[in-house]
Request: fold
Amino acid sequence: MSQEELGIFIEDEFDYAHFIPNHSKCYPLHGHTAKVKIELIGIQKDFDMIIDFGELKKMIKNTLSLYDHKLIASKRYVKEEYKDKVIISYDEFKIELPKKDLYLLNEEVTTENLAKDISKKLIQVLPEHIKMIKVEIYEGARKGAFGRSRR
Reply:
């Protein structure tokens, strides 16, 4: 007898700063409070649960802590890197900050790329019976992006 796949979701949020050079509105350094909805599809296991919400919440908090209250920037704007500091620069903008306050993406820091990055990180720490994860990030009340990762 085959088991059905079911889904669960959990919501959280994190705060971050970013910039997108040459974009009319996102050019200057600015911040967001991102609401995150994480959906999992998997097979019921212990106690007929896909995963215990407390366990899932810890995994999500650990993953989102990589982004929370950080400047998230594209690696292409790193101009100098020292042992514990990084200089980020584009056009006339230049900032030096501790590495611990920075998260770097390979691409531009868009909501789409953040959703993709978070979904890839989370699928790696989730149990094998979780087959798919969808991460939705709301940038404001009624707009956002999502990324999916599958096993």
About this structure: The helical segments are 53-64, 111-125. The longest strand covers residues 5-18. Residues 5-150 form a domain with the Tetrahydropterin Synthase; Chain A fold (CATH 3.30.479.10).
